[in-house]
Write a structure and sequence with these properties.
- 8 copies of one chain form a homooctamer.
- By secondary structure, chain A is an alpha/beta fold.
- Chain A has 9 helices and 9 strands.
- In chain A, the strands form 2 sheets. Chain A has a 5-stranded parallel β-sheet.
- In chain A, helix 4 runs parallel beside helix 9.
- The longest helix of chain A is centred in the last third of the chain and has 15 residues.
- Chain A starts with 8 loop residues before the first helix and ends in an 8-residue tail after the last helix.
- The C terminus of chain A is likely disordered.
- Chains in contact: A-B, A-C, A-D, A-E, B-C, B-D, B-F, C-F, C-G, D-E, D-H, E-G, E-H, F-G, F-H, G-H.
- Chains A and B meet through helix 1, strand 9 and helix 9 of A and helix 1, strand 9 and helix 9 of B.
- The structure holds adenosine monophosphate (4 copies) and magnesium ion (8 copies).
């Protein structure tokens, strides 16, 4: 076989394996979805190609609910859990081009049954855009910032709120940003505190962290996923 | 003046400024402690030299309670808040040399009024050491891993528990670890999920993130600091 | 001519030159196979394109046995030596995407006449998968780990067995792994001992090292190749 | 000789050579000051050690006015030109530790005869500090930002004012900032426009650029230096 | 929505948002142009694909003046302000391949209403070419150097003139230039002073800096844009 | 406590924990030696300071045999196992300055009970030196090359012998070798095969790998340690 | 115009400008060839695409002699000077894949009128191949080594001959060679002396250096070019 | 023994081993000098500490001529060969701080019996300084440029003369020059041709290359050394 699925993960970690579709054949993706579906619960796949999406749709579209986000390149097979009755995760982007990463985070929250909301293109070059949304942001439990270039957003955010912040640097930029390295270093070196960082463009990873945090505050919610 | 203190921070972020003592004169440290003490609440200083500690002790030792951790190089002036009645933050190190960073995290939790506990030298080269402490770890709300070299600890931890994990890479190692860069890249690329990373040796930053998370689950606790 | 083949290598090093097909024309590959076949022994080519495979098949398929592994991108022309009567080399991968590199190692063992076996997708995020195969692993003489991302597998393995371990970092991952550099640094900085590392994705090199080791324990085996 | 002084520079570039004292013996510094003083005009030396300062003081202190800034490690021998009647250069630091670099910039403005003013410790983690000084900043002609760690200050500044901004990244920080590289990349990748960058800790270079700009707006001013 | 346009920017920074077209759909570019046009003033888009240019042309070509520079990949929709009556910005390239970056700078000056002129292929390997144009260069107010490989041009220029210099390193070269990094480091380490640097290939950024400087010397000019 | 010793390691891995003394206090080293000695077998400590050596000598020198190698900075407390009756590990250095690393490898072989021999300063700039020792080298079972600068030694060695080769790059060199990185990359990219690499200056790691290999060919030997 | 040709270069440097065709349109290449041809002497273009070669052939093929090397991607328009009556430049490659770079060097020697000869695939993994050609190599005046991966060839060569050696690292390899960086660092750190290095894959640059050296020993030769 | 001296090198390479003193004990240096002196010819040692110089002086000062250059940190024991009757090697530095590296090159030329001359502090920020010395430079056979920071000197030099140029980047600079890396990349990417590069600060290596070149033009000269 090409895989040894970790079917015990929900018991240990509170959530099932998620399929990282990059580099897998469409047939492999379908086969893994099938095995994971047998456990009950919905199945999330990230970084899907059009071809993978198409084959998953034709394999499961008849019986299962399918949620496809083309921009995020995610697919959810089966009904996701109803969102927990909790303060939402707030996903905030600095620019327009950070949107796909932010949407990957959003799909992940859906699959994990945590409420989430999205605020787009409020980078620090026009501060009033961010300050104008501060009330909404302050009502959320955890904030995910999604920003490329020099990624100043988490630093500014860190000085404005009490909630924990998860910074996602993105590979958005021009010139010597080195595929997001400049943004990554910025997040790690943020002068404000209360910030932890995930890998470049890793919207999924940020959302899992956020969901684990939210589940902590609302202990009964993740079990359903 | 040499500083513009951010006295409004407790209102916005739920906790006062912390003094990063590196590169400051002992006189500057004393002056900043004095101003911050006027707000009430205890004052935390990190990365202190012996000389800075001595001058702070002679300036405040008469009236205030002082908590000095020589290994962590931290000092707390004034009574810290009583620890919240909550599940503790669990700080776990891979080796003996990671201890100073772990202790900086511990002092920070004390100053922020969050309960914390420390498990030392349970790196993955002898798995039974980690597995033998798993019950304790699972009773905590957030886990901070402190590991240098190849920093495999957060990956293994991520597959064993449900709680959010904050990974602190350390500059511990020999050969081409590049002052902790190998460990940092490992944390960012961990194959397990539910992990976010702070900068190399940044025990303070990890603890602030952990305390913000714990305060979320127990909303009344941080206010006291 | 475009090449100066090292026909004396079997006498000095116990095995013939292997063709690294990348960047060679199909005609060049066929010409080199022909010259090496004249020495007797089978001929191994690695990193072959479909076009190279096709031309080798039409040139030699009539007379010689051909072993083609499309995933590994290897081809063996002529009968490989019977595998030595020895404990096998054990090739273990962390994930599904590490399979092509593992299969290049497997083909190399075949061409060198050393027994080998393959264990797939037992990375440390689900430790029970690895622990469940430990008996098999402990019966082998040498272990090759194949792992990308943060490559925690060799560290964990190094603390569980007595055999020498050869670590192959792979360029599998997302974000700031820098084409496998994060995995490479992890392997080099592993906290466990008994581990040596080959270059990123170099399944061939790991297998040659393993075969030299196995031949040492069973001195009569490599001569046949 | 150990040097070929460029005595023609005032004619070509509008200002004399400045002595970069690092790595020079005190005797060499004195010798160069002497030669440059013969041209008339004051002489600026940067990155001076205590020993160099002492020897310059004993050599010239009898006859010439001396301006020594111990924090900036600069010395000006001879009367600097009266500051031009122009809007000032505004030098703004993110933190307390950025002060020496900012003061090197200030000394340079003095030696070049351009008015300058200093605003300290108004980094983005406490935005009100920066916003509270915006009126002053807006009255200046050029702004120099001095910031280490993730250097978010120039990005935020760039979205608030019309004047050209010169960003000086500093080697201030902890963890993986790589001696200021994280700050440097941030400045170069700033999402706001109207920003150009000088090398890490190069307060001198930023000030020369600022003075050339100010002299452009007030063409008669630099000639005096 | 996919964007939160910063319509207040002209008031704060003296010029409107510019569209960075890379990674946007043609429809998104058209939509943003439309919104920005409503403010009055011309609209500049940079890094445009042929497809984006075509769609902008068909959407606005009927009513608005369009200036397209295919080499620079820029488009200006609407009448740019008449150039200020001021000394020009002088854009100088080291080689022929630096031309696209230089032309992006030129288009930006046009959109910002600052006069500019272009001198091409006068790199330091044939010094007489640069020295032969020195009179023209000295009549300009600000100089933008555009150079790849080892980017020696700003250093040599810095020793020849009084005006401020903005250095644009380019990703032009062969071998280990690392996509312009060698040129970037050269600009930052230039031994001459009066130089500030923008990111690799960032002709737009250099021109905005130059225009802000020129506007300072001729305060009434930018308002029109 | 400051440590969680892995006393079960001999059973799992065939050899006890080795003390990496760097960063430990002399008291800690003595305490760990004491605990490990209770298991029987000798105890190896590497990277020892003079002070650590002195305190170990005064604590154990009365009862135990002590082997101290000041150049290698190693100490062995207690009788090492008699060397196995096997072909030796051959440790070969390119230059004189590689000697401390080679001697660390030698001490490790002693502690692990494997025979070893040392050949010094036979780098490729004078090939006859290496070729003159080839007979000796060919009689060994495993070869450890220790080389800095461009580390050409393992490549040349790999084309001359049948035995497996473990390459140790060293931080010996001048100019842009980046603390051994040039040598490390050379070892990983060696054009010859049959080579695996350990981290920079890691003589200990190379020797453990070599001993595991030798123990494989002579299965009864390591048990004694 | 898009270019400022340096027509004075033969007088200053003894040879005309060479066209680096990469990034130029075929029309630009033809135009530059035309201008340079007017000076007399042949014209060399390197890094040509098929399309550029075709257009040069159709523009000049009627009247001028054309020498095209498709592997080297070079074209010489017009009769090159007769080779000087001097010891040849010897170009030696480590592998088959280094051939294109070596052939670029060869074409350059032809255009500069210096005799040259080529030895292919004699890398250090099979030393007898190199030693077998040593007589030929020793009869040459300058040696150019062309080698990728770990580039051990110049080090070994440096210890065998008296002539100056120019090392060309190539981007040939697999795994972490970083586009030739490993080879570049090896060349710069070679333990043998008498070696200088040019940029990765820069066969042209190595040959110009070699021709300048050969012209020095035979002063009348380059003038003709 | 700690060394295997290569006493055959003069026959193969035309010159004896040179002692790289860094990291050797004074006793080792004396012992190697003694052995090399037995071959006849003078002995050169580079990178000597004061202590090494003192011990060499007391061991050989009675009988042998000693040439010590404290700035270069070199020592020549025994009479160097009379300089060849040839055009000199010209060593040119950009700044004052590059002098030690230039002087190491000068001592090496002396030991190798090649005439050399030194021109100091003529960097490109004041072009007239370099142009004023061009006649002298043009009378030499080979030019060594010694330059740190952005190392523009070899590029400018390459466009002015016919002789081969050897570029030595130095670790002189401030800010992000990364111990000379910026200068190294500049030298390798120089837009002029006829330039080859040695490692950072490697004055010795540059001089050996220059002497090999000069010996080629004057074949009878090196033999004496
Ligand atoms: N997949 C591979 N990865 C690394 N090295 C290889 C591989 N395949 C072959 N080689 C090595 O490359 C050599 C041939 O290189 P070449 O002369 O360029 O064909 C062989 O003798 C092997 O040592
Ligand atoms: N603190 C500084 N940072 C950067 N460059 C400086 C500094 N001080 C002086 N310089 C430059 O260094 C030149 C003198 O260098 P040098 O010839 O080595 O003394 C001056 O003309 C300035 O351009
Ligand atoms: N070619 C360019 N290079 C660098 N920055 C640019 C360029 N073009 C536009 N920008 C900046 O990018 C901003 C728009 O970014 P976005 O919100 O992602 O469209 C503009 O306001 C400019 O400050
Ligand atoms: N200053 C220097 N820089 C670079 N290489 C040197 C230098 N001095 C001596 N060498 C080289 O180092 C070799 C001696 O190295 P070792 O065997 O380690 O003493 C000599 O034969 C020279 O090739
Ligand atoms: Mg935007
Ligand atoms: Mg331990
Ligand atoms: Mg898996
Ligand atoms: Mg502050
Ligand atoms: Mg040109
Ligand atoms: Mg030696
Ligand atoms: Mg070959
Ligand atoms: Mg100077």
């Amino acid at each position: 076989g090409f895989a040894t699925l970790d079917l015990d993960r929900p018991r240990r970690c509170g959530a099932a394996e998620v399929i990282f579709a990059e580099g897998k054949t469409p047939e492999q993706v379908v086969a893994i979805v099938r095995t994971l579906r047998e456990q009950g619960g919905c199945v999330l796949a990230t970084r899907c190609t059009d071809e993978q999406v198409a084959m998953v749709q034709s394999a499961f579209g008849g019986n299962d609910q399918l949620l496809v986000d083309a921009l995020a390149r995610t697919i959810i097979v089966g009904d996701p859990p109803a969102p927990a009755d909790a303060a939402p995760v707030c996903i905030v982007t600095a620019g327009t081009s950070d949107l796909p990463v932010a949407r990957e985070a959003l799909s992940t929250c859906v699959a994990y049954g945590q409420p989430a909301e999205l605020i787009v293109d409020v980078g620090v070059a026009g501060l009033h855009r961010l300050l104008g949304r501060l009330d909404t942001i302050k009502r959320s439990s955890v904030v995910i910032t999604v920003a490329g270039m020099e990624a100043a957003l988490p630093s500014v955010m860190g000085g404005l709120i009490e909630a924990p912040i998860i910074a996602v640097p993105t590979s958005v930029g021009y010139g010597s940003h080195f595929e997001g390295l400049a943004a990554l270093l910025s997040c790690l070196n943020a002068c404000a505190s209360g910030i932890a960082t995930v890998n470049i463009d890793n919207g999924f990873g940020a959302a899992v962290m956020a969901c684990r945090i939210n589940a902590l505050a609302h202990p009964n919610t993740v079990e359903a996923s």
